[in-house]
Fold this sequence. Notes:
The chain is α+β, with helices and mostly antiparallel strands. Helix content is about 45%, strand content about 15%. Strands 4-3-2-1-5 form a 5-stranded antiparallel sheet, with no helix packed on it. Strands 6-7 form a two-stranded antiparallel ribbon. The radius of gyration is 46 Å and the shape is rod-shaped. This is FBX21 protein. Keywords: Signal.
Amino acid sequence: MPHISxxxxxxxxxxxxxxxxxxxxxxxxxxDSAQRILLTERVxxxxxxxxxxxxxxxxxxxxxxxxxxxxxxxxxxxxxxxxFRNWYYGEKKAKSGDAExxxxxxxxxxxHVRSPKPEYIQFSVGQVIVxxxxxxxxxxxxxDVKADTPKEWxxxxxxxxxxxxxxxPHYRILINKANGFGKSTAYIxxxxxxxxxxxxxxxxxxKTYFSGYxxxxxxxxxxxxxIYPHD
Length: 231
């Protein structure tokens, strides 16, 4: 028995279906032979076109190739969008991280290493001081080579007559609670400081910055010593 492919079988079925189609056409459109022949040819032509476009394996293969091509295009576009999205948000996140890393800390709270130490910085972290004008005592926990604060603070702190002070070294102080001064910290220029020895400072944060007192100055904690290696 000869082998018949699936496509050939479908085409034979399509051709055979033309005969019952002719019968129904004759019932619907009358018995005029010319009319029936014309309609039959149209049916056969339509079936032939249908089998070539829908029942042909080559046609299906071409459709599949076209679909795969479009799918690959969509996937490529999707990947491009995904890469762009990752790049954009990655860049944005990186910039955001850089901005956070560059966020400035005022009032001698920056953690950048103070090295080398300029000669005009007269005092060191850990030394106990007394404010020349206000009389309170405290201990130095940080310094800046000049006032490093928001501009609004500088304008309020230094009116035109004392503008030069903002360009001099400034020190962050833990104020001795024994003075009953009210404030817990201060940020003051170098010229308002004088050193005192043999005086211990009482402050709730003292152990955060120092491990002890040797009678002349406080001993910095390791993390603070890394920031002020020459003090």
